């Protein structure tokens, strides 16, 4: 467990924060790189003496799921749950062997524990080691491995890395817990977003989509300007991809500036570009920035999605100027505006420059951003 192999294990553990279905694969990688007979990553609910979530390597998945069901169902013997509880008194992110936690020598007989004996019998191991992965409860994050061989001692190359592994896994589990809490509330929000005329998705800093609404999926499936490749939000046009990654990543960083979190997405159809905007999120329970960004994608060619209605509240634009703003945010250019106003393209361009100056906007994208901030693009229900 060293070098590139260890780095890959850490990377997969970090990814599992967003994709919890990959935790079993993380356990398999650890086993393959260390020759451990088995490896476990789980949460222990000290209040209810239950294991609500358990991730495990192949040997247990194939031959010990009845024992796992006992742990998850709260049917583990008291000796097992007391062992988990004793980890609270130990430093986090540090590994210890079972006999050390219980205060026995390596060759001493341990107190009876039927589930321990049964699990070791499944994996063919002799020793168990593990550690606590978080600083406080009531949920205790635990990693545990099995070891064969004549002595209760980890190989030197593994011993050098296992505490680092425990630290990374622990941070990833805590991140995953925050994300699960956010997703539960955000899924309810996206149920409402399905009544809106734009795509919405919650993404992590690398663009991995945690949850999205129907419109986002439809836009991505068309691949006209927005893509979803392997669960990662991106742009169809190669030159837009770095910028798309930038606005998503930027929204997860402190002190993100709104003007840095908006862009246009060129379309394969040569239509008016989409407008993509990201918003930073804050975890209401902790008051700290969440490791997610809200990505909104607007197809401004669709009438009614964006209007200049909110801009009228500033009281500085005439009705004619508001009409021009309405056309601008819906993708019209100077030529189209000149035809509607029965004037020349040059005069229309000058009029547009005057409007953007009044609103302290540098360009049309700033104007679109201002329109987005001052309007509620909810689709009107004909019923």
TrEMBL record:
Presence of the UniProt keyword Ribosomal protein in the record: no
Stored SUPFAM superfamilies: C-terminal effector domain of the bipartite response regulators
Record bears the keyword DNA-binding: yes
InterPro entries referenced in this protein's UniProt entry, alphabetically: Sig_transdc_resp-reg_C-effctor, Tscrpt_reg_LuxR_C, WH-like_DNA-bd_sf
All residue ranges annotated as the HTH luxR-type domain in the record: 314-371
Domain of life of the source: Bacteria
Species: Tranquillimonas rosea
Name of the protein this chain belongs to: DNA-binding transcriptional regulator, CsgD family
GO molecular function per UniProt: DNA binding
Keywords for the protein's UniProt record, in alphabetical order: DNA-binding
Any Gene Ontology biological process: regulation of DNA-templated transcription
């Amino acid at each position: 467990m060293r070098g590139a192999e260890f780095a890959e294990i850490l990377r997969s553990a970090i990814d599992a924060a967003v994709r919890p279905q990959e935790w079993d694969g993380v356990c398999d990688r650890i086993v393959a790189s260390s020759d451990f007979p088995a490896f476990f990553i789980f949460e222990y609910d000290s209040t209810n003496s239950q294991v609500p979530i358990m991730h495990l390597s192949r040997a247990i998945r194939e031959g010990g799921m009845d024992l796992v069901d006992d742990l998850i169902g709260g049917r583990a013997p008291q000796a097992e749950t007391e062992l988990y509880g004793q980890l609270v008194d130990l430093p986090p992110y540090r590994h210890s062997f079972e006999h050390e936690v219980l205060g026995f020598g390596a060759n001493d007989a341990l107190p009876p524990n039927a589930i321990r004996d049964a699990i070791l019998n499944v994996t063919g191991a002799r020793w168990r080691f593990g550690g606590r992965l978080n600083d406080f409860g009531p949920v205790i994050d635990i990693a545990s491995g099995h070891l064969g061989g004549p002595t209760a001692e980890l190989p030197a190359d593994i011993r050098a890395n296992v505490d680092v592994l425990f630290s990374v896994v622990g941070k990833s589990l805590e991140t995953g817990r925050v994300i699960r809490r956010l997703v539960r509330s955000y899924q309810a929000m996206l149920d409402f977003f399905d009544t809106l005329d734009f795509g919405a998705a919650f993404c992590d800093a690398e663009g991995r989509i945690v949850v999205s609404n129907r419109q986002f999926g439809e836009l991505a499936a068309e691949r006209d300007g927005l893509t979803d490749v392997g669960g990662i939000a991106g742009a169809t046009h190669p030159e837009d991809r770095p910028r798309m990654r930038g606005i998503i990543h930027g929204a997860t960083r402190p002190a993100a500036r709104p003007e840095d979190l908006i862009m246009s997405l060129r379309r394969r159809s040569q239509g008016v570009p989409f407008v993509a905007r990201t918003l930073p999120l804050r975890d209401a329970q902790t008051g700290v920035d969440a490791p997610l960004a809200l990505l909104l994608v607007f197809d401004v060619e669709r009438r009614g999605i964006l209007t200049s209605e909110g801009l009228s509240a500033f009281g500085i634009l005439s009705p004619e100027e508001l009409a021009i703003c309405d056309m601008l945010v819906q993708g019209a250019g100077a030529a189209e505006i000149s035809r509607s106003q029965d004037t020349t393209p040059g005069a229309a361009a000058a009029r547009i420059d005057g409007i953007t100056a009044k609103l302290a906007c540098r360009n049309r994208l700033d104007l679109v951003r201002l329109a987005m901030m001052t309007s509620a693009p909810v689709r009107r229900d004909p019923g």
